[in-house]
Amino acid sequence: MNNIKKPPSIILSLDLPIENAVNLVKDLKEVSAKIAALKVSSLQVMEVGIKGVVSELRTFTDLPIIYDHQKGCTDIPAIVERQVNASAEAGVDFLIAVPQGAGPKSLESFVDACRKKSVEPIVLLEMTHEGANEYIKEDTSKKIFEKAIELGVNYFVVPGNKVESIQMYKGWAEETGRDIKFMSPGIGAQGGSAKEAVRAGVDYPIVGRAIYQAEKPIEIVNRMYVECLEGFNGRK
């Protein structure tokens, strides 16, 4: 189920047309040891379907594939289960849930289905953009975290460009006494620093545009990886 590299390491976000995504993966082959996983999105699935996305990537890489359904798990429990089953049948390794709009029963359905299908569940606690929390209650993230912990979830998505939030979530994780891991978008194009995010508690910075829009993506991966190591070594 879980074959991701030990932290710190980069998750490459492939928010690109599938042909471009595949070409990027091929171009980054020499630095693949510094990449923990590939994150694919609903944009590619709309283009060629989840089976097509996984099949295309598997031709060129054996890195774990995280599917971000954007926003998966935000539906009734029966539909959530079917989302997980379809993703598992396509061959994804990890699946991200965003249960803010659905509640605990849908989250239960998501995690149960992931366990049955040997897919590692990931739960989002907070998004990166301004105004992301305006339609949810102040304690929503805490309730989601507590429920996910109760269900045995070990991976969470937190905003890499909000250091105070990372520190808060890291504190929650430490209180559980478990080996909780955090994955974080918001690095680079949205203002977050890989070094500062990892120092605050992030294990896997999720980086997309800063890499695939660069003239020399390999150099950015190398630089980001060094920042991850510096941040990890700088933890208190």
What characteristic shape results from the CA principal axes? globular
What order do the SSEs take from the amino end to the carboxyl end, as H and E?
A: EHEHHEHEHEHEHEHEHH
| CATH topology grouping | TIM Barrel
Strand content: 5-15%
Query: Gyration radius, to the nearest Å?
Result: 17 Å
What does this molecule look like?
With 236 residues, the protein is of the alpha/beta class. It has a single domain, classed as Aldolase class I (TIM Barrel). It has helices spanning 18-27, 42-48, 50-58, 77-90, 104-116, 140-150, 163-176, 194-200, 209-212, 217-233; strands at 10-13, 35-41, 65-68, 94-97, 120-124, 155-157, 181-184, 204-207. Helix 8 links the parallel strand 7 and strand 8 (204-207). The protein is globular. The mean pLDDT is 95.
Please describe the topology of this protein.
Elements: E1 10-13, H1 18-27, E2 35-41, H2 42-48, H3 50-58, E3 65-68, H4 77-90, E4 94-97, H5 104-116, E5 120-124, H6 140-150, E6 155-157, H7 163-176, E7 181-184, H8 194-200, E8 204-207, H9 209-212, H10 217-233
Helix pairs in contact: 2-3, 3-4, 4-5, 8-10
Question: Could you write a compact summary of the structure shown?
Answer:
By secondary structure, the chain is an alpha/beta fold.
